[in-house]
Amino acid sequence: MADSKPLPALNGNPAAAEALLQEVFGIVVDEAIRKGTCASEKVCEWKEPEELKQLLDLELRSQGESQEQILERCRAVIRYSVKTGHPRFFNQLFSGLDAHALAGRIITETLNTSQYTYEIAPVFVLMEEEVLKKLRALVGWSSGDGVFCPGGSISNMYAINLARYQHFPDCKQRGLRALPPLALFTSKECHYSIKKGAAFLGLGTDSVRVVKADERGRMVPEDLEQHIIMAEAEGAVPFLVSATAGTTVLGAFDPLEAIADVCQRHGLWLHVDAAWGGSVLLSQTHRHLLDGIQRADSVAWNPHKLLAAGLQCSALLLRDTSNLLKRCHGAQASYLFQQDKFYDVALDTGDKVVQCGRRVDCLKLWLMWKAQGGQGLEQRVDRTFALARYLVEEMKKREGFELVMEPEFVNVCFWFVPPSLRGQRGCPDYEERLSKVAPVLKERMVKEGSMMIGYQPHGTQGNFFRMVVANPSLTLADMDFLLDELERLGQDL
Amino acid sequence: MADSKPLPALNGNPAAAEALLQEVFGIVVDEAIRKGTCASEKVCEWKEPEELKQLLDLELRSQGESQEQILERCRAVIRYSVKTGHPRFFNQLFSGLDAHALAGRIITETLNTSQYTYEIAPVFVLMEEEVLKKLRALVGWSSGDGVFCPGGSISNMYAINLARYQHFPDCKQRGLRALPPLALFTSKECHYSIKKGAAFLGLGTDSVRVVKADERGRMVPEDLEQHIIMAEAEGAVPFLVSATAGTTVLGAFDPLEAIADVCQRHGLWLHVDAAWGGSVLLSQTHRHLLDGIQRADSVAWNPHKLLAAGLQCSALLLRDTSNLLKRCHGAQASYLFQQDKFYDVALDTGDKVVQCGRRVDCLKLWLMWKAQGGQGLEQRVDRTFALARYLVEEMKKREGFELVMEPEFVNVCFWFVPPSLRGQRGCPDYEERLSKVAPVLKERMVKEGSMMIGYQPHGTQGNFFRMVVANPSLTLADMDFLLDELERLGQDL
After folding, report:
1. Predicted model pTM
2. B335–A310: do the CB atoms touch at under 8 Å?
3. What ipTM was estimated for this complex?
4. Cα separation values, B445 from A254, A346, B89, B340, B490, Å
5. Mean pLDDT to the nearest integer, A228-232
6. Beta bridge partners of residue A269, listed in sequence order
7. Distance from CA of A321 to the nearest CA of B (A)
8. Percent of chain B, pLDDT > 90?
9. Which pLDDT score is estimated for A333?
């Protein structure tokens, strides 16, 4: 039976809770922030899975543990985790550790609310609106709508669902069987979430028509138009084109103006997956790469990538001013979105989304922006371009590096050609042998903990490295390190 | 052009970053944790939207701000946010502030990685597996699969998509138009995400057949069977039943054994939406409410609700051992899930999901569980039941409270009957007048900041309050406060 005392442990004991959190925060600062971003520390401490399981003692038992044990667990979790804020973590499209964004994340986690009503998220409902407005302004829209989604893949799905609903509002109630066969279009360089989304939304992956890309990875608008005409000839109804601004591997920007022309001619929804490249809009120097984006109907943009806002910060932006989001997704749950509230219920934005509870993803970006200003963020973006350019020029000076292509963004794709393969290009097994280099080097760097960089095969090309310059703390020395370290790791190959 | 110095502000200046974070953490402890969970402080500081916009100065400008300004912004964000950890926040199915879970969240945010590969999330790939295994064991499964999703709504969608794929694997490639019309079944008390999911997945809301609930809000299995037979007679193919363990408003538990019998007879996938009630499985005393859950094919369970793990912590659990998740959702992106890695690529779990990047949601629950033990968490759950029971008994002693029904869970639904309406039941406008009470009281409590509790109309019944006993720090005094405060706020009505 309940009594008047709170439970043991920390429930209802604020002083003990504070003391624990102070201790944990100290560990976080020492281990994850100070060491985790220090170039002379390891970027990762590799352990084989079985050994790591032993070290972590993951099992959840009936008995609780002492504070000392818990603190030791916190240390172990950090010790064996990869340091994505480390200046030699080049592995993904996100990296770096922005202190202001992290401050925003800690506040978010402590306030622990859901974004669905003004009632329980007054600050964040207004803030999300303001942040989305700013992002829309950078796209070139003075009005519109939007929402933060749990990742770019889901933003892309939203775009597909919204386009489908706009063309065929019946779909919401009656489903796809009441509709003609639909077709959407994207390039072969697009992110895999487009096909995942088509499957999840019931359209099927066959509904995705794959358009050619040119030698630099950019969608070919003429081929897009051909595919549209072909789809129509086959009896399908085209409804959406998903262009990409910043492709995942090559960092290519689809020609948005030409694609927008095609969409206009055929009455199609233009979605721009700018999850990776969207942040380039902040740069006066480089935003021309996205010329035409203002003609899109929807844009997916992840500030957790190039702006280092922290996972996840994924905006879906819409040009629509007809409340399409809410009409498409709304279900009017009466327990949450009561219509007899004492404030303007238009502020309860939760019915715009297919989630119910939704995390607050705006504060981290807002606080970082307030601190850095648009100018500071612009400098960051410009700097990543400059560092990527420096890296490319340095590669050209060294014997063992071969560029896949001149990059137009901050993805630098290249082969490291080890000594034994230099000058062998054209030999029958050259490609095959070269393709085996990256996995070996990757294993070596991870096991040493010196660096992390991704590789992949791509089309007909064997494994090459994809260097991503995104961490705002990078310097020329980190670029030099990358080159030196690959030479060191690969000298015996 | 890039130079060798890092950017100004905090990029690349670890000492300044640390100092900022220390300051912010101090503010978080003082304002959000200490005051935010203190009964004598306000649960919220209500401001009208226009006034709040002014106070927050939300606009994002070109110029950055000083550290002092940023710290003041952090204080303002916390000041005007609702304190969901406050002992008088009863408004949602989540509340309270668990220090260990928050510690896990702070570490998660600092490490800032994505859950998709062992390469960049070694600790969390293994930890997620262990946590899911533990949750499955509580369901009654010694094997299976699962994943953490961004909220219960998306978990429910996953279940629908998986059931559809299992019945009709063709759907992934060819889409719903290649399939017969499908039907799924849930009760009228189910969460609104089932209909949202059906729309999003292209099935359409019409595909959701709404089964009767009894007077306590529990699905009627006989009516379920009738609906299945009817759907078949209409030419639809039934494929899934979504039962609810802990309905949103009434806290009802559908009779899972009887529903499982029906599913077995008709060969249907049984999904249990236990987003709210799943945590009752931890209690030896109360877990009988979910008897039969082990016969389900999938279970959605949100430890961020009754266990206070923090938003979001939403597990989708599967009985399947055939790699259904990966077969259904996989897209084999070659840039992320390389097959020539130097470790077992089965550890790269990212292709199980429809997201690409995915937040780490396991650590907060794992750390809390390690600290409290299963026993500690069981005590918590038992205690919420006991406090809810106490509240119900106290309500029966007071004139102004009328229960909607005897609760079987920790949702206590009731009307506050103000003095002017007492003894008036049966009068022609009684229901209408009673329905206007809750919105007025809600406005008063929010504007005073003394308490937050939700209300809603439900079926044919006018607005009543839904008290949720979930915060692990609650005491009998908080229950007494609720009653006293409603009497105080409503004394002139």
Report:
1. 0.97
2. no
3. 0.97
4. 54, 21, 11, 61, 10
5. 98
6. A240
7. 21
8. 95
9. 86
Contact B213, B220 (CB under 8 A): yes
Q: A147 pairs with which residues across the strands? A: A316
Partnered with residue B468 across adjacent β-strands are: B411
Residues of A in contact with B376 (CB under 8 A): 7-9, 64
Long-range own/partner contacts, residues B168-171 (CB < 8 A, 24 or more apart) = B168/B239, B169/B327, B171/A199, B171/A202, B171/A204
Task: Please state the φ and ψ torsions of residue A147, each to the nearest 5 degrees.
Answer: -165, 150
pLDDT digit string, tens, across residues A1-52: 444 444 444 566 788 899 999 999 999 999 999 999 999 999 999 999 999 9
User: What are residue A415's DSSP bridge partners?
Assistant: A402
Contact with chain A for residue B15, Cβ under 8 A:
no
Which residues are CB-neighbours of B374 under 8 A, at least 6 positions away?
Answer: A60, A61, A62, B282
Question: Chain B window 76-135: which residues touch A at a Cβ cutoff of 8 Å?
Answer: 77-78, 80-85, 91-92, 94, 96-100, 102-103, 105-107, 109-114, 118-124, 126-127, 130-131, 134
The Cα B359–Cα B150 span in angstroms is 8
- What does the pLDDT read at residue A8? 45
Looking at A78-206, which runs of residues are DSSP E strands? Answer: 89-90, 145-149, 182-187
Which pLDDT value is given to residue A462?
95
Answer whether CATH 3.90.1150.170 is correct for domain B371-490.
Answer: yes
Distance linking the first and last C-alpha atoms of chain A: 70
Task: State yes or no: pLDDT of B2 exceeds 80.
Answer: no
Q: How far apart are CA A408 and CA A253, in angstroms?
A: 8
Residue B435, judged by CB atoms within 10 A of its CB (0-12, 13-18, 19+), counts as middle
| Mean of all residue pLDDT scores within chain A | 96
| DSSP symbol at A251 | -
**A332-344: pLDDT as tens digits:** 888 888 889 999 9
Which tokens go with B333? 């992106």
Residue B114 DSSP one-character state:
-
Is pLDDT at A313 greater than 60 in this prediction?
Answer: yes
CATH number assigned to the domain with residue range A114-359, chosen from the 4 options 3.60.110.10, 3.40.640.10, 3.40.47.10, 1.20.1180.10: 3.40.640.10
Cβ contact B61–A373 (<8 Å): yes
Domain borders along chain B are 15-81, 114-359, 371-490
Question: Is it true that A114-359 and A371-490 share their CATH fold?
Answer: no
| Separation of alpha carbons A415 and A408, rounded Å | 17
> Which residues of A, range 173-232, sit inside 8 Å of B by Cβ?
173-179, 181, 191-193, 195-207
pLDDT greater at residue A215 or residue A2: A215
